[in-house]
Specification:
10 helices; 2 strands; about 240 residues; mainly alpha; two-stranded antiparallel sheet
């Protein structure tokens, strides 16, 4: 059997799909942790945030950010599409009494993972249009003048300006709540799927997954809330 046929057979199986979901989930979880770390530089001030943004866009002479974007897009498409395929497979297998009992015992987070995943996908599209493509926003006019007289894009001011519209903040908070509901179940499932969890370690892994989701939620949500409360302001 050719390697391509072997890979197709593996992906076609339930176990193969779960492994793909887990591995793509690892990529997305690491991205969330890194993205939050960078976003929290908002609290360090305009220079720190803009230095970070300039570093990201300058990596590998500008190619680094595109490599990261393409990798994340591939991981996201694989994660969402494969999860939806698993949901269909599970629904098809619900004819037995065992499957019905298993569904009743499933956690709320696991049962709404497909719905929350699609909502999160919609938020990601909105987020990209809002801050990356900057569709309908005059963010390109926001610049920071450096000591030597040169200018650069002012990401710090862009974030604050973007979160001064309360419906955007509300949508952001709801999306992050759904994301973290998905995340709390998903992180622990990664360990289980990849065979890294034991009966002894499983309770700890579940608690760690929940704690990670809470930290991600509080970290991301704190920024728009701080803008709305006036704790983060545009430079004078």
């Amino acid at each position: 059997m050719s390697p391509l046929a072997t890979a197709a057979r593996f992906y076609g199986s339930s176990i193969g799909k779960k492994v793909i979901v887990a591995l793509s989930g690892v990529v997305l979880v690491l991205f969330l942790a890194g993205h939050l770390t960078g976003n929290l530089l908002m609290y360090a001030g305009q220079d720190a945030m803009n230095d970070y943004a300039e570093f990201l866009h300058g990596m590998l002479h500008g190619a680094g950010v595109w490599i990261a974007r393409i990798s994340l897009l591939v991981a996201l498409v694989l994660h969402v599409s494969t999860t939806l395929q698993l949901v269909r497979m599970n629904r098809a297998a619900r004819g037995s009494e065992y499957a019905k009992k298993s569904t009743v015992q499933a956690s709320i987070s696991s049962r709404i993972m497909a719905v929350s995943g699609l909502t999160i996908l919609s938020f990601i599209v909105f987020h990209i249009l809002h801050f990356t493509v900057r569709a309908g926003n005059d963010y390109d006019s926001l610049t920071q003048t450096m000591a030597d007289g040169t200018t650069r894009h002012d990401v710090y001011s862009m974030v604050i300006t973007g979160f001064q519209f309360w419906p955007t903040v509300l949508f952001y908070v709801i999306a992050m709540a759904l994301l973290c509901s998905h995340l709390g179940h998903g992180v622990s499932s990664i360990f289980q799927t990849l065979g890294l969890a034991t009966d002894k370690s499983w309770p700890v892994i579940r608690k760690a997954g929940t704690a990670f989701a809470i930290l991600i939620f509080l970290g991301f949500v704190s920024i728009p809330v701080a803008v709305m409360l006036g704790a983060l302001k545009l430079p004078a």
